[in-house]
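Two entries, shown back to back:
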Amino acid sequence: MSFTETIFITGFPGFIAGRLVEKLSSRNTHFFLLVQEAFFKKALEQVQEIVKKSETPSKNFTIIQGDITKENLGMSDTDLEVVLRETTDIYHLAAVYDLAVEKDLAYRVNVEGTKNVNDIVRKVKSLQRYNYISTCYVAGKRDDRIYENELEHDKGFRNYYEETKHFAEIEVEKLKGDYPVTIYRPSVVCGDSVTGETAKYDGIFYVM
């Protein structure tokens, strides 16, 4: 079967990535889901749930073992070749979201990991769109009026999560002149707007 689009996604089976895949699922869409070895079983289970809910054939989902902190995202040569040839759209969601994350880990995953994804973007044969999930907190300690084109600043950051997402977005911005890039800056994602379902009780839930 030929597909109208093939979407490569990092961050699966994370909370946002999982729901994004479910929303984008269709019989004409194929997914390459980059998954760390430790989350392979969970990814398989989540794909089966999505198949049931969306009635999308299981053959539309290909789970690829990898790691964004590694060269070529840790993919095998065979997987890399197929991904570069068939991918039309990329969604990069993988990141460390912990506000108390240590500096080294934050930079390795959020900044270096994004650079590695950017390298894949440059090599994809038929790229239609690169979607990068950033955060509104790239603004750091700024408290004045902030326009979306005002990314770089010297006001500082409250934690390494904010700091590294800021520098990661700068890396993605560098691609805009040559590639179709869309950057999203969500605020706090606390759960499903209808059911309240969430992946973990942290952040805003501490004050509820």
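entry 2 starts here
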Amino acid sequence: MNVLIYNGPGTSPKSVKACHASLTALLTPRYAIRSINAETLIQEPWQASTVLLVMPGGRDLPYCEALNGPGNSRIASYLRNGGQYLGLCAGAYYASARVEFEAGDAQLEVTGDRELKFFRGTCRGCAFPGFMYNSEHGARAATLTGSIAENVRIYYNGGGIFVDAEQVPDVQVLARYADTDVQVTGGNVAVVQIPVGKGSALLSGVHPEIALGTLDADKLPGEDLEKLETARLLFLGRLLERLGLKVNATAAERPTLSTLHLCASTAEQHQACLSLLSSLADGDTITGEHDTFQLLASPSDRPVDASDEDDLDAQRKYLSLSASPPVLPSFDLERYFSSLARYTGSQTSLGSKLLYGETVTSSQTLLDKNFKLLSNLPHGFVLLCAHQLSGRGRGGNAWVSPPGVLSFSMIMHHPSKASHTLVFMQYLISLATVEAIRDLSSLEVHIKWPNDIYVKLPAGFAVPEQAPAFVQGENKFVKVSGSLVSTTYWQDTFMMIVGVGINVLNPEPTVALNTVLEHLGSDKRIDMETLLARLLAVLEHYHAAMLQEGSFRSLADRYYQRWLHHDQPVTLEETGQQGRVVGIDLQHGTLLVDVGRGERVGLQADGNSFDMMKGLIRLKRS
């Protein structure tokens, strides 16, 4: 599940960066922390996979210019349907019914009504004097007191008060400014929470995301910064808990990217990959379009990292070419390669060559955004990891992959002469995932169009509140897997990057396959290595069959056996048309909906989303 931090016109780089750092410390690896821009917020299907939307500090007028209308409508709908909103300083002004900022100051004044109106009153500022844009001149350590804080000091720069908050319906006051020099009228309320439909908005005039150590030293004379930092993180953690998130007992350490290990099923294949990677290097460095890779003869050659670069994408990636990789803590290479050989009868199949990294940024991004690698690595090459820090999903969404989630991306080549079947690859991947899980267990897993896998839950199974789940008839289902396909055309070939994430072992914050097996009383358990090998073997078989036939037709019946949408009544949200799902168009790959009077609507998978709880299909915006 995602925690999205808005990063668009008007946002403060300092606040955005601090949000990433603080939320990563408090929430990973349970949640994926990532940015979302205005275009994605307005156009992409982010809501169902998001537990929290954060509007950071900055200037709220540009927020209005970018999001008024469709953007705000989406935010409000997200909260009404159970989403959570955290507004910090400008993000709190923005979510109030009215803003009154430095009224009467010709240089600074911003006043006016706002669309979201989560706080149905006025946010008035600045609470304290001295504010200047793009400056720390008015920044200070404000002291807060209240139900979740007792004399805690939090970074402040330009925030407001929530005027007469006690008189505004449904508002819960969480903290007040304890400092006596509040310069505006209307009280001293600094932090509030308001229910919005099934969700809520928590608005703060202060910046709990920013460490007080960033203030000028003369503003904190003689203070114990370590003690202040501990108190800040505790305060922010309490805010997040009020929004329904599960917070780490102790702040997680800053994530460190692991060494990538080159692995192959045979010595000959390892040598071929080693030679290929070496040929791409200038000395010992491959400079990709997005990442820089330093080649190592062995893992022990990696230097002690001296970089304090916060941007993980900008950090150098280390790639060991050793033919004898170390014992990996989360993946048994011997079991994997023996399983792959057993299922395929081949040593040159999909997945016979791979890079493994315990912790990476995003397996999909490392391939997709580094064309030098993508255009040279062979068909079937896999990038596998135990933990992704910024994994990518459909529509710009992320999947977080803590230990226990099988996360990989694989290069597949698809001939241009078979371009008409390319659209069916996402269906092949979903079908292969379902069949692999069913082959290894008794679990009833199914496909939710277009690319999600859901498991049927046994009676009495308690679903975590944040798990993507729905009820169909008497049955309850929860999401356990998702996939993504990105495609580049190069030298008469479609080069696909197939990304898959499957929750095998980790029970938080959703549901793991083995947790369901345990609840069923089954003696079977699924291991990562066998599941990956089986999935790749099935996918290779399906891909070859589709290419030979030149059609998805021979696989369609099996696909329909595994999906959740047979004859399902639906409503097209944008038009209000009602209809029923009748299948997949075997020529164009679209979802076919019969809307009556002989009319059928074909929906592309890219951009449309299926709300199973409501029977709604949200149409892609052009």
